[in-house]
Design a protein that fits this description.
The complex is a heterodimer of chains A (197) and B (260).
Chain A: E1 3-12, E2 15-25, E3 30-34, H1 41-48, E4 56-60, E5 67-70, H2 82-87, H3 102-111, H4 127-140, E6 145-149, H5 157-170, E7 175-180, H6 183-189, E8 192-195
Parallel strand pairs in A: 3-7, 3-8, 5-6, 6-7
Antiparallel strand pairs in A: 1-2, 1-4
Helix pairs in contact in A: 4-5
Chain B: H1 12-19, H2 23-40, H3 49-60, H4 63-96, H5 98-113, H6 116-126, H7 132-154, H8 158-166, H9 171-209, H10 215-224, H11 228-259
Classes of the chains: A alpha/beta (197), B mainly alpha (260).
Chain lengths: 197, 260
């Protein structure tokens, strides 16, 4: 089912960050949102993720959709290692794939270029490594909609390309909403690109 | 007085390292004490450390000593544990309810600001002297635990809570992996401070209330009969008891935190 956003508006105090935003996000497609800093991209994603409520407008097609997300910040438990951070999202029925064993997690981390760093507390990893752990975690979850809030920020070109391929491979057939201010990232991920004014 | 002494990074460990007592420094002050006692030459005014330790070992072998220790330990430790539970529960409620937080604020501020002696005398009117040290230890510890744990709860990373919401992480897992690690340093700091405070206040309450069979009664009698070696020996006992209780409790608390 497509996600239909109709005349969405959101204000913080006097500042209107989203005004009458409408879009149709086709099921199983990548949908990239571009806007300058402070343009309401993250707010839009937060509304879609259910972390904010819109002042006006409506969203259809999100009902019963399981969401996974790469946040703008890594939002990892610093004292836990990469494996445990990923395992943290498992357990509740339908929240993680059945194959999410420790060996499977090791394999996914290896694909993200994190081999040898699996057992370090993530606070001891570099920013780029933490970013990749956050991406692996998001893709390890069971989801219908994947929300990516500037997922490649802080990654070097090699790792950026590696993670783009990883996301494309793992999210095949799933609805993906990507927020970025880098047109090359949006183009590389494919799908529709819109500009939030 | 600010009771919040620890942050997420466990900075209280630095404070503890600075406060660590070195053996040579302790020995230096014992020598000063011995010299002063020799110079004064009157045990009633200043007893020598040697006499104190001899008297202490005389006391230790009596049943009466252990009965008094047991009496005071049960009440003060009981007040501490009860306060730990009540303070944590109140903090939890206050973290969810603004009304509860606002209602608790003046009570906690009053308990923190009021002189312990006033509380002791006031509570002596309502509570039998046997249980006075329990109530006083409770009252001294509750605001410390409440303030620290509430601060810890309010400082839980909102970003991680949102992450848990998005990934549908179960509530027991949220408590174990997000809340407890954030609160642990605050809880440890609260316990570390309040363990010392509850012994001081609890014994002070016993000295005023003079319940039969308590350490406070022994201190009171030592004062009345000008038994200065007894007074010092009992003080040494209280210090040792307080330190042992604190070390043992913090050891188990640290183990529990590490296991988490």
């Amino acid at each position: 089912m497509d996600i239909v956003i109709d005349s969405l508006s959101k204000k913080f105090g006097e500042k209107e960050v989203i005004r009458n935003f409408s879009a149709r996000i086709k099921e199983g497609c990548v949908f990239s949102v571009m806007a300058p800093s402070g343009g309401g991209k993250t707010t839009l994603l937060r509304i879609l993720a259910g972390l904010e409520t819109a002042d006006k407008g409506r969203i259809e097609g999100l009902e019963d959709k399981k969401i996974s997300m790469v946040f703008q910040e890594d939002r990892l438990c610093g004292y836990l290692n990469a494996v445990d951070n990923i395992r943290l999202i498992s357990g509740k029925k339908g929240s993680s794939p059945l194959e999410m064993t420790e060996g499977w997690i090791y394999g996914e981390l290896e694909k993200a270029g994190l081999k040898g760093n699996e057992k370090y507390p993530v606070r001891e990893l570099s920013g780029g490594m933490r970013r990749r752990v956050a991406i692996v975690r998001a893709l390890a979850a069971v989801y219908d909609l994947l929300i990516l809030d500037e997922p490649f920020a802080g990654l070097d070109m090699e790792n950026k390309n590696k993670m783009m391929d990883y996301i494309k491979e793992k999210s095949k057939g799933k609805t993906v909403i990507l927020v970025t201010h880098d047109i090359t990232e949006a183009e590389a991920m494919g799908g529709e690109i819109i500009y939030l004014k | 007085m600010n009771f919040i002494t620890s942050g997420r990074n466990g900075k209280n460990k630095d404070v503890e390292n600075h406060a660590k007592v070195k053996a040579w420094a302790a020995l230096f002050w014992v020598l000063i004490w011995e010299t002063a006692a020799l110079l004064i030459g009157q045990e009633i005014l200043l007893v020598s450390p040697v006499s104190v330790f001899l008297r202490f070992f005389d006391l230790v072998i009596t049943m009466d000593f252990w009965q008094s220790i047991f009496f005071s330990l049960c009440r003060i430790a009981g007040g501490f544990f009860f306060a730990l539970f009540a303070g944590a529960l109140l903090a939890l409620i206050s973290s969810f309810s603004r009304l509860a937080k606002e209602l608790a604020a003046p009570i906690m501020a009053a308990v923190k600001a009021a002189p312990v002696a006033s509380f002791i005398i006031l509570i002596l009117i309502w509570v039998p002297s046997r249980n006075l040290s329990f109530v006083i230890a409770f009252l001294i510890v509750v605001p410390v635990v409440y303030t620290n744990i509430l601060h810890g709860l309010e400082n839980v990373d909102k970003g991680l809570l949102e992450m848990a919401e998005v990934f549908r992480i179960s509530y027991p897992k949220r408590v174990r992996y997000i809340f407890l690690p954030e609160i642990a340093p605050y809880l440890r700091a609260a316990c570390s401070i309040s363990l010392g405070l509850c012994w001081k206040a609890g014994i002070a309450a016993e000295v005023i209330g003079v319940p039969a069979g308590s350490i406070g009664e022994k201190l009171y009698e030592a004062k009345v009969y000008l038994e200065t070696p007894d007074l010092f020996a009992w003080t040494v006992s209280i210090i040792l008891l307080s330190i042992c209780f604190e070390k043992i409790f913090l050891f188990f608390l640290d183990k529990a935190i590490e296991m988490e």
